[in-house]
Amino acid sequence: MKKKDLLKLPSVSEVLLEINDNKYHNDKYIKYIIKDEIAAFRSQAKQGSLQLDRNQIIQSILLKITKLSTASIKPVINATGIILHTGLGRAPVGKKIISKVSKRLSGYVNLELNLETGKRGQRQEHISALISSITGAEDAMVVNNNAAAVLLSLNELAEGKDVIVSRGQLVEIGGSFRIPDMITKSGCKLVEVGTTNRTHISDYEKAISSNTGLILWVHTSNYIISGFTKQVKIDELVELGRKKRIPVMSDLGCGEILDLSNKGIPTNMIVHDVIKSGSSITTFSGDKLLGGPQCGIIAGKRSLIKRIKVNPIARTVRSDKWTISLLEETLRSLRMDSINDNLTLSLMVTTRKELEKRANKLLSVIPTKLRSNHNISIQETFVEAGSGTLPGATFDSIAFKISSKKYTPAKLSDKFRNAQNPVVGYIKGNNYYIDFKSIISSQEKLLLSSIVEVLG
């Protein structure tokens, strides 16, 4: 360690004097960044590896402040082709819905106030009737995600009791969250029946005891078991539950509200059909095929929903005014005759022919030299929905295929992610792809700017 290197380090006040006050906010955060950066340079000085002079250190810290003082969450152009990309926020919500909700929430709102009576109201009342009317349920409620919906429902309906589940449905979702762990954390005891590939109604019947609290059916949303298989249908479990006086709960995961098979979206399980079959409680996500905000929806028998609403856990997982307002607006705009207001569904139903037209139009305005130097071409692709939705189903799409001689696919990926308008594509083979299935049409000018910035 050289003492003269330590003398190069500026004080916090010295760096603060160099900052343009109009450019930054939150003084405490700025000081935190400065102290953290000075500590890093001090460590270098002690190790004898400090290469910068005092002025260069200050400039380096100022650059760091500039980077960290801007919002961490920023708009991204999703060019992966995966519409429900968990890393990119799952279901995108359109500007029209966002605008309506932001105007509504710019001040105070009647979240828990009944304006007619002047008495305290319930936040669930804003969306319960809407959900019920669409799904056919007697009552409904919303919590902050589907995992919370499952945990809360299990705890209320079967705490301290057995929950029967097929071994073929003991799923693990992203982040290593597993159904068996959820059942245990909810205070219930897991009872596995059948085998991984085959489960019969008799397996459930034999497992029922005086301590059985619930029969749970789980949609294997992120994988498929094929070949010599058998799974018991929900209506069969409902019939067994009625006979034994045991409620049946269905965790649908993605939650298909509309049957859009005539528009090219494969149909798996429509929520309305599951509830109509007699499922006591049905849970599903709001930010998948519903195209709304992150939330978990619980729909079913009124008597059971009433119990779940007053469970103490319901308070810990309740949704805020933003989620409830976004969900309400999403549900109100959901119509079979027009899904244009639902950005997620409109992206899904966009045909390859339409995507190819957009791709050719954008390709025509990319400078010829860039197209030639980086070998940009249009290629047909097949993509998945994402987020464990519609497993095994693919969608026809179109992508830019970039086979650059100057940059490796990994380098292209890095440069596009760090562009002024970040673009997230994917690498396949030895090429970089920009897939149009998940690209919002209003972002295409920004995409062009990023392509010129990265390849120019």
Number of helices: 19
Let me know the largest β-sheet: 7 strands, mixed
Helix and strand composition category: alpha/beta
Distance between the termini: 44 Å
What number is the mean pLDDT? Answer: 93
CATH class of the largest domain: Alpha Beta
CATH topology call of the largest domain = Aspartate Aminotransferase, domain 2
Rg, alpha carbons:
27 Å
Count up the domains.
3
CATH superfamily of the largest domain: Type I PLP-dependent aspartate aminotransferase-like (Major domain)
Task: Give the CATH architecture of the largest domain.
Answer: 3-Layer(aba) Sandwich
Number of strands: 15
What percent of residues are in strands? 15-25%
Spatial order of strands in the largest sheet: 2-10-9-8-7-3-6
**Estimated helix fraction:** 25-40%
Tell me which oligomeric state these chains represent: single chain
Low-confidence stretches: none
**Shape assignment:** globular
Can you summarize this structure?
With 456 residues, this protein is an alpha/beta fold. It has helices spanning 3-6, 12-17, 27-47, 54-69, 95-104, 128-135, 146-158, 179-185, 201-207, 234-244, 271-276, 302-309, 312-316, 321-332, 343-349, 352-364, 368-373, 409-417, 444-455; strands spanning 77-78, 139-143, 162-166, 172-173, 177-178, 189-193, 212-218, 248-253, 281-285, 296-300, 376-383, 395-402, 423-424, 426-428, 431-435.
